[in-house]
Fold RNA polymerase III subunit Rpc25 domain-containing protein.
Amino acid sequence: MAIHPSNFGAPVEDALIAEINKKYANRVLHDVGLCICVFDITQAGEGKVRYGDGFLWYKVVFRLVVFRPFTSEVIIAKVKSSDEDGIRLTLGFFDDIFIPVTYLPQPSAFDPNERAHFWIPDSPLTTATELLDTPLTERMYIDQGEVVRVRVEADEFCDDEPGPIKVSEGVVQQVKREGRRPNYMICCSIAEQGLGPVAWWSGASQAEDGDAEGEEMDEG
């Protein structure tokens, strides 16, 4: 790790942490996760000057704070957008969280007018056409900006290679690949009790608490 001469006046550890954060913070390391910041420096060698650049070079061993939730972990996120394929979530600092339609509570469907998925509990209906004919009052929508509780099903790292080179009228052009995948993506589910919009279950728990208090008063 190199320290620029302009930073020679700063404490060595502070200068090293600043350079490490500059290199790794907010970047995805393949099969590791999203790097947040330096946790600590466990070992730092003696700084050496290389011929020709004037930098102080250090051999450093350090630890990073990394975001990578484990499988089956339950996390809280917000709905960023929805389409026919599923729901995309955000944590504020990380947006590549996706709930595919197979991991939505059933029966559910996508409402193109509201641009949101909805769920109808205990409904015998199964097809999207039937569900879209139901009254709006029966639907439990998962709206944009709503806070949801999700369970991590899997994650995937992707390292797309650049597209092939082609020559057009003597000019070399780089072919862009359509639909480039994110470097790191998390797949989640809300197809279980207690998962999905937090408002769904907070209302239910309040109702249960109220029933329990009523029973105690009757017993008294």
Notes: The chain has a mean pLDDT of 85.
